[in-house]
Amino acid sequence: MTLTKKIIIYMIIGAFVGLSINIFGLMDNSIVSDYLVGGLFYVVGKIFLYALQMLVVPLVFVSLFCGTTALNDPAMLGKLGGKTLVLYLITTALAISIAISFAYLINPGVGFDLPTDLEFTAKQAPPFVEVLINLVPKNPVEAMASGNMLQIIVFSILLGLSATMAGEPGKRIISIFEDFNVVIMKLVKMVMELAPYAVFALIAKVFAEIGVDAISKLSQYFFTIIFALFVHALVVYPIMLTIFAKLNPIKFLMKMRTPMTFAFGTASSNATIPVTLRTVTERMGVEKSVGSFSIPFGATINMDGTSIMQGVATVFIAQAYGIDLSLSQLGTVVLMATMASIGTAGVPGVGLIMLATVLTQVGIPVEGIGIIIGVDRLLDMTRTAVNVTGDCAVTCIVAKSEGKLDVDVFNNPDSGVIEEK
Ligand code: ASP
Fold first, then answer.
1. Number of compact structural domains in the chain
2. Which residue has the higher pLDDT, 4 or 173?
3. 332: in domain
4. Does the residue 143 lie in any domain?
5. Which one, out of 47, 116, 138, 270, has a CA that is 20 to 30 A from the CA of 249?
């Protein structure tokens, strides 16, 4: 059996166990709630999450350094970066436009009974100029310590470029980094082998704690988002891959099962970077020079799933408050949601912070977020799976357009697969 199949089986069992605990009211029993769900499941899930996060910074730093030195061409680097950025922004804007259209077809907030005791304190996403200035890692060690992805990306590329220009010392450093890269990819594989049990624990905990009542009250909102997420992942990306890269979308989606499951389990594109990066390079045949840049970059700035939530949530909250949004306000929503994604890292729940920025821009009460917060965790998990799918789709399209994708590896279902012993 492959690891992917095992993870998916454990995930389904986890959902089943969690839902059973929930539906049969077992959370009222303190042994179940404190020791099983809040104890064992929590600990196993968290240990795994930390193990994944442990890999992110060293992996991005080393593999992007190696990718830059392998490319050895600043002009090409600029071209790849430009293409990736433009595609990321276009897919995000497309995602949110689709979401708004669906929201207006379904009208989830019309006639919604607005609770009177709403509360939500909004944190603001950083303003764009700050994001721009902060691209420069004033202190690279601090950037790594705090996991500031954009700064790590800038530092790794600059260091990689200078290594290629530094003659013999540069060559020596490159060879050490290449060895380090192999070692760290081995560690990624080792951590991934623990995934089935961890995914079971993570999913079982979420489903045990989820407010089924909350979902049924907000079912129109909830399912509008789920529907838009599915359309984006299963229709929009496949069409883009077929038209722009002439790649088989079914093969793409089959190989996406592992990173999607990780993203679903962790609700964090950042924590999923090791798995996403491994998938594009070893399973889909993307050269490291492209993948090592576009995957961490995408985890930070490309959040199509999140922008779908923001589109539907904006319309939903506006309708619940009886606010009519004009066409230009909807344009602002698209623009703001796209821009807000640039400065915020892919961690659980960050989408709500971005949503607060969007709502403020169009004059919708931010407290409205209080209505949807109760169902956000499951949506967060699902949209994170779409976020990483978007990162991989764009990576494949860019790599293919530059002759940096090995189609034989992409088409071979067995490439890079991890077999379970
Ligand atoms: N959890 C999402 C991610 O990591 C961001 C969000 O939608 O809150 O990509």
1. 1
2. 173
3. yes
4. yes
5. 270
Distance 346 CA to ligand 1 centre (A): 5
Task: Say whether pLDDT at 267 is over 90.
Answer: yes
Rounded Cα–Cα distance for residues 306 and 188 (Å) = 26
Instruction: Please tell me the predicted confidence (pLDDT) of residue 421.
Output: 62
- The pick from 300, 306, 357 for probing ligand 1's pocket by mutation, whose C-beta has the most ligand atoms within 8 angstroms, reads 306
Domain that holds residue 17: 3-411
265 lines ligand 1 (CB under 6 A): no
Q: For residue 324, what pLDDT is reported?
A: 92
With a 6 A CB cut-off, is 261 part of the ligand 1 pocket?
Answer: no
pLDDT in tens, 278-311: 999 999 999 999 999 999 999 988 999 999 999 9
Task: Look up residue 303 and give its two tokens.
Answer: 């959040």
pLDDT in tens, 355-381: 998 998 899 999 999 899 888 999 999
CA of 29 to the centre of ligand 1 (A): 32
> How many of the other CB atoms lie within 10 Å of CB of 239?
11
CB proximity list for 315: less than 8 A, separation 6 or greater: 100, 103, 104, 108, 109, 325
Distance from residue 315's CA to the centre of ligand 1 (Å): 20
Instruction: For residue 122, name the pLDDT band (cuts at 50, 70, 90).
Output: low
Domain presence at residue 261: yes
Helix H segments across 193-248?
195-209, 212-217, 219-231, 237-245
- 286: β partners: 405
Task: Identify which of 312, 342, 347, 375 to mutate to test ligand 1's pocket (most ligand atoms within 8 A of the CB).
Answer: 347
CB of 346 closer than 6 angstroms to any ligand 1 atom: yes
pLDDT, mean over the chain: 91
Asked if residue 181 is part of any domain, the answer here is yes
Residue with tokens 């990576």: 395
